[in-house]
Amino acid sequence: ATQLGRPADALAAWASVLRRRPDDVPALWAARDGYAQVGDDGARAQVERRLLDRLPAEDPRRPELWAALAETYERLEQTQDAAAAWQALLAAHPEHPQADRRLEALARASEDWPTVADRLTARAERATGEARAAAWLEVAELAEGPLADPARARAALIRAAEAHPADAALLDRLEAAHTAAEAWGDLAGLLDQRAAGAPPADRARWLRRAAAVREVRLGRVAEALGQVAEAATLCPDPDGLDELARLAEDAQAWPVAADALR
């Protein structure tokens, strides 16, 4: 009947076979193709689901069938079922690009921001180099916006900076996030990182900023003194020497204070 161009008759024949042998996989495939020909997506989805229940886990046709089922549900506007099908495909094949993108798109359409964040995070974990940094920035922007989760945004910015430590604009954002979170230890460490390898004048500037955080926010006067002393050696301007003298007096490091005031 199919070869004669009568798909409805062919479907009726396969339905008869399936009533007698409901686990007949070839008949299920044939019925699925028949429903696709006549555009009956509701019946097609049911048959695709039955096929997935019967195909062994190692069957190479399963990924394509999961994707087809998800697309069928999308045409039926059964968003939750479509998302569940894409999720099942991802569970078996975590790097499946179509499933990843479609699940994200469905989540965005329904404003399911936690799921969007999970998809972006999984993608960021797989990425490398600058692409990894860009992916973590997407997570950070989502956390700063719809998720309203500053802690997650800061964590994502940290991962982005690890992937691309030479991006000055990214480091500026991370510095602001540390400051907003009052994460003074992290801020001091970031300023140390920015000082490392910088030209002398810039290194002195970053060292002085790190020293201010250590003195005022962390109460580590001795560490601050060491950084200000190094900055004064690199760039011995009057303001820097005055700051060195003040810190040395606070730390009762009288020889250092005397040298700074000469």
In short:
78% of the residues lie in helices and 0% in strands. The chain is mainly alpha-helical.
Structure characterization notes:
- This protein is mainly alpha-helical.
- It has helices at residues 7-20, 25-38, 41-54, 62-75, 79-92, 97-109, 113-126, 129-144, 150-163, 168-180, 184-195, 200-217, 221-234, 238-250, 254-261.
Write the layout of secondary structure elements.
Blueprint: H1 7-20, H2 25-38, H3 41-54, H4 62-75, H5 79-92, H6 97-109, H7 113-126, H8 129-144, H9 150-163, H10 168-180, H11 184-195, H12 200-217, H13 221-234, H14 238-250, H15 254-261
Helix pairs in contact: 1-2, 2-3, 3-4, 4-5, 5-6, 6-7, 7-8, 8-9, 9-10, 10-11, 11-12, 12-13, 13-14, 14-15
